[in-house]
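explain this:
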Amino acid sequence: MSGRFAPRPVTRTPVRDGDTTVPPQAPREPPAGTKARPTRTRTWTPPWPLDLALVLGPLRRGPADPTFRTTPDGAFWRTSRTPAGPGTLRVAARGGAVEATAWGEGAEQLLDQLPPLLGSLDDPSTFEPRHRVVAETWRRRPGLRLGRTGLVLESLIPSILEQKVTTDEAYRAWRLLLRKYGEPAPGPVDGRMHVMPCPRTWSLIPSWEWHRAGVDSKRSATILRAVRVAKRLEEASTMTLEEASARLQLIPGIGPWTAAETLQRSNGAPDAVSVGDYHLPSMVGYALAGDRDADDEAMLELLAPYAGQRHRAARLILLSGTTPPRRAPRMTPRNIATL
């Protein structure tokens, strides 16, 4: 669930609309040991407070995600495989503006999609907190927006890897597979950043490499089925939540949880609830009703007043830090590579 990411300082001062495209220039404080120059830069000023960590944090799959990095200067770096090709995007807040720089074949598309990525298509105006925990977190997190990448596969594959395993197991699999089969990221980045493999490369990964990464045959088979129809799945980025969820769930092995986790990121879907999550029902139940034993049915009942905005409400609950006391030991990771 996206709420596991820690908040960063919020840019609280409202600013005016503005959008400026400027000629290419060297990025500020690029990673050491590089000499590459950007292909294009853009400055965009959102008309509302913006917290980059809250918006971009859900796109990060673990602290060593090869597609995501933060640097000491406060910048966020991420890689994507766009329809135009691979690209690297650097985003940093400067006052009330956002400065972005991109490299690679996908640079232009990444910059064109910068406002939606940072939540320009998100409309929280209809959201009305109905519980104290939600209202207080909403007040303290004015920079929270639900961004959309517009890219389905890059969120779908790691979500499949996260099915029914610990996050550490899923993060390890994502990291190992991308480092071996991903494409080196364009631009002034170190060798640890990679672009997600193209669908054909995913389809050619041998069974023993999935095994070495700790991915069982059920999840790897689901990924292989998905990449075979990648173009059809990418169409879901322009669909309604119901249509997009139905499209994804046509693939055997993709259920409501995986579809919701994907569409929260690719479509910025404010109502996509992660039904089937291991922890979310108890966290929502405890925060809203003091019920640490809530199941999916109880969770959906508690979130019913937020219809149309249930993912936003759940995200705020996770950000509130209101969690039930732990009663059972943590889920034990499996290492299928040793089996």
Summary: The chain has 15 helices and eight strands.
